[in-house]
Amino acid sequence: MAAPVTIAHLSDLHVDADAPALLSRVAVGALSAFVGSSVRVHFPREVDAREALLGAGFALATVCRASEYPAGAARRGAELVRIVDACV
Known about the structure:
The chain is of the alpha+beta class. It has helices spanning about 20-35, 45-55; strands spanning about 10-15, 60-65, 80-85. The chain contains 2 helices and 3 strands. Strands 1-3-2 form a 3-stranded antiparallel beta sheet, with helices on one face.
C-alpha cells in the first residue's frame, strides 16, 4: 500500500504587527509609488494569516518567524519575516 501523499506549500509573508507602524506605512507608500498601484501588507497579525490559510482549504498551517529556524536564527531581519508551512 502506498503512503499518503502530502502536498506542502512553503512561503514567506509580512505580518504588519512585526514592524513599527510608521516604518511599515512608509515602506508600503514607497513601494506603491514605485510600482504605480496600491500595495498592501499580507496580514495584520500572525493569527490572521493562519486563519486565512485554514479558511482557504489547508488542513494544517503554521506561521513562524524566520528566526525560529536554524538557518534564519542569526540572520539580520529574520524577526520581520514569517515562514508559512501549510499542507493539504
